[in-house]
Amino acid sequence: MTFDDFLLAFFSLDILRQAWPILLAGLIQTLLLSAIVVPLGLLGGVILSLLSAVRHPLVRWPVMAWVDLFRALPPLVLLVFVYAGLPFAGLEVSAIGAVAIGFFLNTGAYYGEILRAGIESVPAGQVEAARSTGLTRGQAMGYVVLPQAVRNVLPDLISNTLEVVKLTSIASVVALPELLFQARQAQSVTYNATPIVAAAVMYFILLWPVVRLLSRLENRQLAGRR
User: What is the pLDDT of residue 1?
Assistant: First the structure.
């Protein structure tokens, strides 16, 4: 293969112009999915982390089992089960509904473990001090503990969010036209790898600023420990 053949196979401007409209539509779908699944995962994580803080075994052990289960299940398998399995139980779920449920269960478990670690990093005396001012346990958790917990694990939260955004590509298995799905469709029509390369570049442009922010936060956190 000559260099010109290589450019034609992977960096064809003509193919890019033809594929651009559906690639752009795929990017918009990816952003929409991210705007849905990231808040859902965070919501699930907050709920699980707060339940994990309950010391009663009838609460703590089921929460631990729940987190272990959905962290162990591959997200792709979970998504296919929700989309293709629930109809056998009489529960029809749309493609975007299946993605929302699957990500809520899977990413919520990961966010929950991160936030649980953050809550446990806050000294117990903080809660006692907040309670002494007249706050209830729930208010102490919401106003005093959670803000400190989030700050302590912020790099981990951002890192997990990056993974969640990249993981939205598995939505293609339920025929949601996100970026990778559209790139593969364009590739199958044009018999050219340029749409896949373009999708990779678009992912990089989308996520690189977040990667740089994560690096800065990690460096700042390391500097604070010295």
Answer: 64
